[in-house]
Amino acid sequence: MILQSVFFYLFSAVLLVSALMVIGARNPVHSVLFLILAFFNAAALFVLLGAEFLAMLLVVVYVGAVAVLFLFIVMMLDVDFVELRAGFLTYMPVGLVVGVVLLAELLIALGGWALSPDLAANLGEPMPTLAEASNIEAIGALLYTKYVFYFQTAALILFVAMIGAIVLTLHHRRDVQRQNIERQVARNAENSIEIVNVEPGNGI
Amino acid sequence: MTTELATLPNLMPALPEILLAVGAMVLLMLGAFGGSKTSQVVNGLAVAVLIIAGAILLLSSGGTVTTFNDAFIQDPFARLMKVLVLIGSGFSLAMSVGYTQEEKFDRFEYPVLVLLATVGMMLMLSANDMIAVYLGLELQSLTLYVLSSFKRDSAKATEAGLKYFVLGALSSGMLLYGMSLVYGFTGQTSFVGIAEAVHVEGAGIGVIFGLVFILAGLTFKISAVPFHMWTPDVYEGAPTPVTAFLAAAPKVAAMGLIVRVVMTAFDPMDLQWQQVITFVSILSMVLGAFAAIGQRNIKRLMAYSSISHMGYALVGLAAGSSAGVVGVIVYLITYLAMTLGTFAAIMSMRRRDGMVERIDDLAGLSRNDLPMAVLLGVLMFSLAGIPWMGGFIGKWFVFSAAIEAGLYPLAIIGVLASVVGAFYYLRIVKIMFFDDPAPVFERPANELRLVLVISGLFMASMVFYVSPIRTVAELAANSFF
Q1: Where are the transmembrane segments (chain A) (predicted)?
Q2: Which of B147, B158, B345, B478 has the fewest CB atoms within 10 Å distance of its CB?
C-alpha cells in the first residue's frame, strides 16, 4: 500500500510538473515532448488504478498518434511562438476564469458520485469488479456481443475515411520517378554500362 | 467472468447491407489490383450488387423483425424506402458510365464509395436506436463529402466538398448534442425506450430541447430551410453524376429517417415536433420557390427545387397521420423519379467542348432534339405539379393529408408556393420550345436517354397506377400505426 502511494505521488508530481512545462517551455518542440511525458505519467496513474486498457489506449492513441502529429506540425510550420505568447498577461484573467469554471464542473460531477452512492447502480452496463474480469475482458465481452453492430458500422466509417483520404490526396504523377524494384534487381553490367572509346580532342 | 460462446445475432434482416458492404470491399480489391482499366467493370458489378440487394429485400418476408439487441429494425416501411434508395443509387451509377469516360472521371473508387454510402443510407432507414442513427448518418455523410470533391483538380468541386464537410460536421454536432440531451433526460437511447420514458414522465423541457436539436441535425441532411445554405453551392460544384446521386437517394433516406424518429421515438410528443416540422416545411416551400426564380445555372435551380420539394414532403409528415405518412412515401417516389430523369437530361447537355449547365443552353431544344425536349418538358410539368402528372399526385396526397389534419394555413401556403414555383419550371419549357435554338448538343449516351424515357413516361402515366402505389405506401405506413 505504501509502495502504491509512493508511486502515485511520484507519477502525479511528474505529471503536474510536465503539464506546467507544456505551457511554460520556450521551445515548442520541448512543449510537445513534455506533453508526451505527461501522457505517459497519466497512463501510469491509470495502471495504478487497475485500468490497464485505458492506460494502453492513452499511450497508443495520444502518444503514438496525436502527440507525434503535433510534433510534426510544430516542426514543419514556422510559427513564431514568442509572438503568440505576447499577450499572455492580458489573456490570463480570462484563462483563469475558464480554469476555475472547469474545476467547479469537475467537482460537481465527481461530487455527485460522492453524494449519492446509488448512482452507480443506475448504469446501463455495470462494470464487473476486477476480481471477476479484467478491463479488456469486460469491454470485449460487451463490444463484440451486444454492441457488435455499432462496432462494425464504426469500422465501415473508418474504411470510408481511408478510401476518401487516398482518393482525394494520392496523385499518380508522370514526372516523378518511382522505385521499381524488379527492374533494379534485373539490371546488370552488360545492359547498363556502355564503354565508349573516346578519341582525344573530339569529345563524345 | 466465465467465458461462454456468444451466440451470433440474427444476421438475416441485415443481409442486403452485409451484401453491399462485402461487395464494396471485393470491388475495391478488384479495382486496386486490376488497375484503372477495370473502372467500367467495377461500375457494372456495383450496379449488379445493388440489384441483388434490392431483390433480396423484395423477396424477404413482409413482417417486422428486429436484431442486434433491437438496434436494427426491418419493417415494411424500411423495406420500401430501402428499395427506393437502391433504385436511386443504381440509376445514378448507371447514368455515370458515359460521363465518366468523357470527363476523365473513371476511377474505380467512385462506385465503391456509392455502394458504401448506400449501406449508410440503409442503416439509417433501419435504425431503431440513437447510436445506430448517428453511425448510419455519418457513414452516409462522410462518403458524400468525399464524393462531392471527387474531381479534386476542380476548384469548385473542392470548395463544394469542404463547405459540405464543415457544415455537415456542425449539423452532426447539433444532432449529437440533441441525442445527449434526450439520453440525459430519458436515460434511453433506443427509440422504444425513449417513447416509453416520455410517455411515463411527460415531455419535459430538456427532452424538447433535445428533440429540436435532433430535428435540426436531421433536416440539414434533407437541406430544409433554415439548414439549406450548403445545397446550391454543393450541387453546383460537385461533378454532375454526384449531384444526381446527392439529390436522389440521400434525400429519400434522410426523410425516411426523420419519419421513423418522430413516429416512434417521439411519438408521445407529436404536438411539439409537429410545430417544428410545420415551421421548417413552410420556410422550405417558400424559400425554394422564390430563390429559384433568379437562377441561371440549372444545377443551382435543381438545388432550390429540391429544397422546396423537401418542404412539400414535410407537409405530409406535419399532418402526423397515417394518410400523412402515405403522402410522404408517394411524394418521395415521385421526387426520386423526377430527379433522376431531370439529371439524366442535365447530363445530356454536352457540346463538343464539354458540359454546359446554363438554362439558356437549352434554348430551342425542341428543334434540335424533339424527344428530349418533350420528355424534359413532361418532367418540368411534373415538378411544377401540373395535373395529372406524377408530381401533382404526390402533392395531392400530402396536401389532402394536411387538410384532413386541419392544417389549413400550411396547405394554403404550400399551394401558393407551388404556384410561384411553377413559374420557373414553365420558364424552362418556354425556353426549350419558343426561344431561338442554341448550338446542338452532342448525341447523349444511351443510358441517359433510357433513364429520361423511363422517368418521363412514368411521370406522364402515373395517374393510371395510383392505386397500386397507394396500396404499397399504405402497407409501409402501417409499420407505425
Answers
A1: 6-25, 32-49, 55-77, 89-115, 149-170
A2: B478
